[in-house]
Amino acid sequence: MNLKYGFISVDDHVQEVPNLWADRVEKKFRDRAPRLVASKNGGEQWLLDGQVLLDGRAARAGALLVDRNEDPKRWADVPAPVFTPAERLKAMDSAGIDYSVLYPTVAGLAGEAFGRLDDSELELACVRAYNDWLIDEWAKTSERFIPQCLVPIWPVEAAIAEVKRGVGKGHRGVIFPSLPMHLRKVPHVSGPEYDPFWSACEELSVPVCLHAGASPELQTPLPPSVKPTLAAAMDAATKPVSSVFVISLYSFSRVLLRHPKLRFVLAESALSWGMLYLEWADHQFDHDGLSREGYDLNPSQMFKRQCFFNSWYDPIAPFTDYIGADHIMWSSNLPLANSTWPRTQETIDHCFKGVTAADRERVLWKNAERLYRL
């Protein structure tokens, strides 16, 4: 691994190209897999099995547009660094980003668009096409792109097989919708049915990455009459806090205890609520006497053994002691509207005031280097 800027961004997004699925799924799925089509308003939109994706936008690219509140309505208006690996590398260099851990866009923040499909065969075809494309078009372009595979949410045997296949092709992490039972009728994620999947990820030593916002049911939507920019602002404000429900579930349901070698990344979680949550969860744990219920660790101990928060804007000095610098990573969120690009390094300098050089290195690159085996 070669570092020039001292920063591994652990949450950035690729923009899937219009021909991705048409070129890579079987002919019988091509009219149902994601495709870019003309919309009634004169723009273009993504369709998946008849359902509109990305709220009718052609891409998510706010960071590279003059008006961050707008996203491209047509593919011709999508900036090249959003979907072209070579141009993305230039954008990374301009903001001082050494390596970029990749998440999807059309597929959802965590592949949840595919998880909602009732047809598990179509779901698997879409997932496999994305995973292969990410390796072929991005990871093979540069080692600075760190690929992560999607998985079908059910059946669990298919999820396990795709994790093994994906890791074998070079994927460094597994992206999973944190609450798959919100997407369609599958077993509860904390139940024994998913234990073989968690065990497979443990055995492969790959982190499971849970992106905030992949279960929008945890957030309170505004009515349709509200101006889109206001709705987007509220969505962005409430998205990180949705991780509270996720980490609570995975802790109190004993998923973390049953799989002590499993590592979870809470992507786009931010930090401020994290310290408050861990403090409150420990208090409630002690208050309700859960140590007598067979828990070997309290919530903060489980977290510090196995989990990572991820931020991009918090001044982190207040959190390094309680959360621990070993459990925090940093991102740029390129190319989304809330990205720190192009002022990524300036944002880092502001947010890391009062942080020791050793802790700065842990958060900005050492934790990611260790977790993703770079």
Total strand segments? 12
Structure classification: alpha/beta
Proportion of helical residues: 25-40%
Low-confidence runs of at least 5 consecutive residues: none
Q: In angstroms, what is the radius of gyration?
A: 20 Å
Major pleated sheet:
6 strands, parallel
Q: Average pLDDT value?
A: 94
Summary tags:
374 residues, alpha/beta, 15 helices
Could you explain how this protein is built, in words?
The protein has 15 helices and twelve strands. The strands form three sheets. Strands 7-8-9-10-11-12 form a six-stranded parallel beta sheet. A three-stranded parallel beta sheet has the order 1-5-6. It is globular and about 60 Å long. The N and C termini lie close together (6 Å). The model has no long low-confidence stretch (mean pLDDT 94).
Secondary structure: elements and pairs:
Blueprint: E1 8-13, H1 20-24, E2 35-38, E3 44-48, E4 51-53, H2 80-83, H3 85-95, E5 99-103, H4 112-115, H5 120-139, E6 145-146, E7 148-150, H6 156-169, E8 173-175, H7 195-204, E9 208-211, H8 228-238, H9 243-252, H10 255-258, E10 264-267, H11 272-287, H12 299-306, E11 307-311, H13 317-324, E12 328-330, H14 344-351, H15 357-371
Parallel strand pairs: 1-5, 5-6, 7-8, 8-9, 9-10, 10-11, 11-12
Antiparallel strand pairs: 2-3, 3-4
Helix pairs in contact: 5-6, 6-7
How would you summarize this macromolecular structure in one to three sentences?
The protein is an alpha/beta fold and 374 residues long. 40% of the residues lie in helices and 13% in strands.
